[in-house]
From TrEMBL:
Keywords: DNA-binding, Transcription, Transcription regulation. Residues 63-123 form the HTH tetR-type domain. Pfam families: TetR_N. The lineage of its organism: Bacteria, Pseudomonadati, Pseudomonadota, Alphaproteobacteria, Sphingomonadales. The keyword Transcription regulation applies. This is TetR/AcrR family transcriptional regulator. PANTHER family: HTH-TYPE TRANSCRIPTIONAL REGULATOR YJDC (PTHR47506:SF1), TRANSCRIPTIONAL REGULATORY PROTEIN (PTHR47506). The keyword Cell inner membrane does not apply.
Amino acid sequence: MPNDNAAAISQSFFLFILSLLGSHPDLGNDLKIERCSRVSIHFFLACFSQAFDKGGVMNAAKPKTRDRILTSARELFFSKGLDETSIAEICKHSGVSNGSLFHHFPTKEAIALEIFVGIRRHYWEHVIAAMEAESTVPAAAEASVRAAFDFQKKFSDEYTFMLDTAAAPWVLKHTTALKDLNTAFVERAMGWAAPYFMKGELPALSIHTFGALIFGLPQWIAREQRAGLSVPDIEVVTEELAALMRKLFSVEPK
């Protein structure tokens, strides 16, 4: 089914041709055809140029089926929860048939896994980029903690889904995908940390211990909140942990 822009262009083009022919009854048929051909080409190109410029025919093309499924699933998972969302609802929301959905994803959990991995990638990128932007270990430790809390605030739906899904039993069946993702970011963090270890500016900790200190505490606070437990003002907690990380990693070079 053509989109609205394509239909509008086709209709305008057709009316233009009719008006052009009718406005010159004195022209012979050959001249009419020649004139129409020449002028209509310019008109047609102008219409399509306008459509492209305004995000028309090409830009209004429907997203790929896989992307539509993932987009709809995200919205439903975030608003209703994973367990409360059915395959039928995802199909209806995305306008995709049952068969088409299963062609791309064998189960609802497969959809959730792809969304979960994407969110984790977004989270790690956000936090590690903040760390990499600093030139000293104390500043990097503080920036990482702040970035972790910043992600929780800016992308609260994503973060909540990530927390809930990480605890789901079915996720344990897909450890390979998660290990591959974690390995990539662990190696990136190690690449950043290596020069500081060599200069004695970073305590002799394993990368996992370092990660637990920097990233684990903000996640623990978030889990406490998610569980409905009383947590002090998050802004206060952010400042306290940021100051703690800066002090903890302020070591004198050897």
